[in-house]
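Take a careful look at the protein record below. Let me know whether the structure tokens fit the sequence:
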Amino acid sequence: MAKKLRDLDELFKGRHVERELIILCVRWYCRYKLSYRDLAEMMVERGLHVAHTTIMRWVQRYVPEFEKRWARYARKSGRSWRVDETYVKVRGRWVYLYRAVDRDGNTVDFRLSPKRDVAAAKAFLRKALRTQGRAPTSITLDGYAASHRAVRELPGENPAWRNTKRRSSKYLNNLIEQDHRGVKSRIGPMLGFKNFDCAAITLAGVELLHRIRKNQFAIGRLRIKDQTPSAIWSAVLAA
């Protein structure tokens, strides 16, 4: 049974800053090309004097919680996946961000990996299967052999993959390569990450805001009258 989400008051208990401002800082950092220091300066105009390191800790603390709450309203993606990897620098070394979108450009899933090999590709596809609850009818890959091998071997591990067709097309994968830009453009101003786990959480926040921007959440049933971003976030997190 899924663990019950904590009440918002409990989630923000002990914080000496209004939760709306904490949510705003996390949301803006993950969405816009801002540094922690930029946000700290901007908050001064709202009467909040906070260290940039405090905002960093808020991102690490609350992104996983925000992911859980938004996940309740996530729409399933289509069943034709485009899978690709892009590069992210952590402590001066390149690591790999596995990502997939469907034929309409909706995000399927993502996973940060220290390696780019068969095991990493399988781990990403297993995660995507858990997220979507169903295997794709087709997966389009680039020419990297490890990813093709992963897709070939998965049906032997899980019958859910038995009807998935594997394709290789640079043209069809232009869609995922274009989608990388929406994420990478936000990562650029961060100037690299110092810690792999922190990078994974921060990227999860960036991906969450990227999906919200693409309208991948069915929040209509909440009947939110005020359609400002702050009101929508408050309604989703409190529901």
